[in-house]
Amino acid sequence: MLPSLPPTSLPKIASLKTYPIRIPFVDGGAGTGGTPSRWHMLDMVLVKVEDEDGNVGWGEAFAYFCLEAVDAAVNKMIAPFVVGQVVEDIADWNLSIQRKLHLFGRYGITMFALSGVDIALWDLAAKRAGKPLWMLLGAEASVERSAYASLVRYGTADLVQAQCERALAMGYRHVKLHEVAPDVIRRARSVLGPDVPLMVDANCAWTATETFELRSVFKECNVLWVEEPVFPPDDYAAMRVIEAAGIAVGAGENASTAFDFKRIVDAVTYPQPSMTKVGGVTEYVKVLRSCKDAGKTAMPHTPYFGPGYFATLSLLPQTEPETLVEYLFVDPEAWVAPAPQPTAGILANLSSPGIGFEPDPEVLQKYAVTL
Fold first, then answer.
1. In whole angstroms, what is the distance from residue 174 CA to residue 111 CA?
2. Beta strands, E only, 273-354
3. Where is the signal peptide (predicted)?
4. What is the spatial distance between Cα 31 and Cα 34, in angstroms, rounded to a whole number?
5. Contact 124, 57 (CB under 8 A)
6. 347 close to 312: Cβ distance less than 8 angstroms
7. DSSP strand E in 33-113: where?
8. How many Å apart are CA 69 and CA 233, to the nearest integer?
9. Which CATH number fits domain 13-130: 3.40.50.720, 3.40.50.300, 3.30.390.10, 3.40.50.2300?
């Protein structure tokens, strides 16, 4: 069970405020492939909740290419159920909001918005208790996990080679591609050598038949997992067939709620919950538990640089030692908060109260998006 605090000790939530921000980044590529237009901006909707005693919690709602809609969803759909309320049991509150809002879309932007507020409420709860979130949730010690360099799609073997070489020089010992061409995948393997685990994220580019036809490439390149090989991403039957053919699959970044994730946990070797999409800390913890019960290793989807990233690191003690943490291999123009970055390919959770996130006010102001 997720913990709750005695209701007599909890002040009301006095306010909820959103901070839509957009931070440019560079990645060494063209920024095209799977997005409506060039991807060179990190969009995020930060959520700040404050209680009557002045305690503050921060969260992040997924907002890539949908910032305006997500911001509106937080303020119009979620905030009315938070401000002025005493939230005693965050998990129970989360479920109650899902019940109230299912008419407006069970998943997608509705769940992006709920995720951001849920993270903020858990951050607030841990800060009230004076504990890191992982400790509030019952973990006894800090841990370290291996991080992998999550390269963007470059589309050419030469660019992939340069970025793989850069990742190795920075100490990474796990690399993920977002490539679909066999020659590009082969080039990456030749650069990384035989001992560095390699993953391939297709972003739903192939059919099941096309995935089967690439089995020899995956075997030749010793691919640890193939991520989201087919469209639609919730074709779990196809994933089971692909797994049965000897291809380990990673999936889950587009799924929401632990209920939806049960089908993923049953279907693939590597479930991949996304903190800012799945339903926040509440649903993320349930997914981790489901993975553990099924003997599966969760591989968090976390190409973020705000509270979603911090919250994912906060829950590392709830993951298995084999868990790998995604680190988006780009260079942001600014960080919304001083964030832990991989050192020799290793990440650790933080020891400060809450999720460890405290934003830089100047960054919030400079990169604010006016809606």
1. 30
2. 324-328, 331-332, 346-348
3. none
4. 9
5. yes
6. no
7. 41-51, 56-62
8. 22
9. 3.30.390.10
Tell me the β-bridge partners of 198.
Answer: 175, 223
Amino acid (one-letter) located at 15: S
- The backbone region for 321, taken as left when phi is positive above 0, alpha when psi lies in -120 to 50, beta otherwise, is alpha
pLDDT tens-place string over residues 21-54: 999 999 887 766 666 777 889 999 999 999 999 9
Residue-wise pLDDT for 139-188, tens only, equals 988 899 999 999 999 999 999 999 999 999 999 999 999 999 999 999 99
SS3 content of the chain, % helix, strand, coil (to 5): 40, 20, 40
* Paired strand residues for 23: 42
* Domain topology for 136-354: TIM Barrel (3.20.20)
CA distance 41 to 230: 26
Select from 342, 346, 174 the least CA-distant residue to 164.
174
Of 69, 67, 18, nearest to 41 (Cα)? Answer: 67
Residues composing the chain? 371
Same fold, 13-130 and 136-354: no
Strand 41-51 vs strand 13-26: parallel, antiparallel, or unpaired? antiparallel
- 263 Cα distance to chain centroid: 19
Q: How many CB atoms lie within 10 A of CB 58?
A: 27
- Letter string b/e over residues 144-168, b meaning 16 or more CB atoms within 10 A of that residue's CB: ebbbbbbbbbbbebebbbebbeebb
